[in-house]
Amino acid sequence: MxxxxxxxxxxxxxxxxxxxxxxxxxxxxLQITGMFESYKSWKDIVVNIESYNNVADLWNGILxxxxxxxxxxxxxxxxxxxxLEKYRDITKDTWYVEYLLAAYRNAAWYRNxxxxxxxxxxxxxxxxQDNLRRLSIVGEPTYVNCYGLNIFVQNLTGIATAFLIGVIxxxxxxxxxxxxxxNSMDIIIESSKLGYRKNKIMKVYASFxxxxxxxxxxxFGFLFMYLMLFRDYxxxxxxxxxxxxxxxxxxxxxxxGYLIKSYLRLLLGSFAITGSSLLxxxxxxxxxxxxxxxxxxxxxxxxxxxxxxxxxxMGLFPISSxxxxxxxxxxxxxxFGKYVLVYKDLSIGFLLLMNIISIYLICxxxxxxxx
Amino acid sequence: MLIxxxxxxxxxxxLILENINLSFGKGVYAxxxxxxxxxxxxxxxxxxxxxPSGGDIKYNGKxxxxxGEKYRDILGYLPQTIGYYENNTAVQNxxxxxxxxxxxxxxxxxxxxYMLEQFGLIESKDKKIRTFSGGMKQRIGIIGALxxxxxxILLDEPTAGLDPKERKNLKTILAHMGQEKLILVSTHxxxxxxxxxxxxxxxxxxxxxxxxxxxxxxxxxxxxxxENVVKAEDYLKFSTKYMILDEQMQENxxxxxxxxNAKDDAKWQEVFPGLNDVFLVLYGKxx
Lengths: 371, 287
Description:
The structure holds two protein chains of two kinds. Chain A is mainly α. Chain A contains 19 helices and two strands. In chain A, α2 packs parallel to α13 (195-230). By secondary structure, chain B is of the alpha/beta class. Chain B has two domains: 2-218, P-loop containing nucleotide triphosphate hydrolases (Rossmann fold), CATH 3.40.50.300; 223-271. Chain B is 33% helix and 30% strand. In chain B, β7, α7 and β8 (182-187) form a beta-alpha-beta unit. The A-B interface holds A 1-3, 5-6, 9, 12-13, 16-17, 180, 183-195, 199, 368, 370-371 and B 44, 47-49, 51, 65-66, 68-69, 72-73, 75, 77, 79, 81-88, 92, 95-105, 108, 144, 148.
């Protein structure tokens, strides 16, 4: 009861900050804008996709290259080349949509496979071959309604969102311990019954709870909105193997699993920012030092680009852990039957470990401190 | 109730307090010394914020540092500089302090309303702290210290920022509470505690110099405090010879209150010393 009151009081003191309200507004605005822009482009694309689905239905579950319209097949080399320019940069948001369309033109690709493979980057080629193989094996018609969900995941774990979430958390949590030291609240805390250590534990608890609430409401709130907007409720339970459009996790058993993993990464990445922000705040004596150090840590992968790949793979740095923009590490990992444990999955465990260590470092008993 | 035994505190090689021995029962005690003489350090150790370099403080025979949470449960401490969450209201701040003190919310709400009423802040209970004056903030701090109905109350400069009416109100409350509890008021403003404290503790040279009642302390310099009116041109000569304790401009000259071992002039009028005189004589730099 007491602890609950204290946690509520801590959360109130954090959220009463004007910065929090402004940045939260920006974050929500960004997501809503992204959602409607995606919807607009989706409406154009879906017209084409539906016609391809109709063709796919004609295949009756078996991919038959001969049944594909001649016009689709006879793309000249120049067209394919210009298309490939887009595919090379696999970090582009729209890549998977283009890729899907290309997959239906794959007779043309197939015919020129040697030439095309030379043009593709190593990563793109791997993805291309893998999808082509699965299309040939599974051969199911491709229903692309899940495009909405894919956009959702892309938007929600995109760089702008990750950056804003990171900045919000850094600005909110960096002052949390420094403030007590600067306004002498620490004296009141230390001399009160619960003492400084329990107060620290409560602050950590309140911060993590607040972040959990923000991330969960944000993620599932927008997931619901995306589902409503794209009217795509059913695709959430589709086996992902039948959806080559979902190139991000071709070995997952379902989109639901993919969404849960994406949520966990966002949550644990946010927790990692929370943990590091609190730890630095606890050790700092000024707001400026605390905020600057935390922002430096948050943006480290961008400040030192050569650390980018390592940090993304290991999930060492929070912002690279919560943004899912880069995908080429998806296929680097260990295969267990149909499931591939990619490094990004490992990063979930790594982030968890980071959080446990940071919480321990903040809350450990000071040997000089009285019980 | 509370006993301080051979207490020492040093920061590195810098000795702040040495061999402090004191015992406290119920009543109001005043800890008096100029700034920088170790008052806050002593209170910090008594409130378990700081560990001593040597010695111990015992509550009912047990070390307060071992009692920890149990001791802090019966402690109310008002630090010299008080922290607030400026964007929270008075009630929100006090509820937070109540939670820190382990008071459940419903009890805390009743107690907060009662204390706000007593300290004349009930009208401002839902206003944000950042809109409060210095005196109002100080009263919120005092309420915070008293929220858990503590048995031991340590107040570091409690009257700072309070206007005369608020000071009088605080003194009345403390005098009333002092019948049941141990109250230690640290101050360098003698008028705040002169008629309030049962016992005055004066620190000097890192140790307890005087620990006595106000009356006994004043008697120590009885017969040494005088008043005299001098002409303006004689002021400099007079002030270099005697320790001036107070001065007041009058039509016929300057009325001086001063310390002298002997009555050197028949015109001098001997007056009964007050604590302020003792303070100035003891720590006196003012001549």
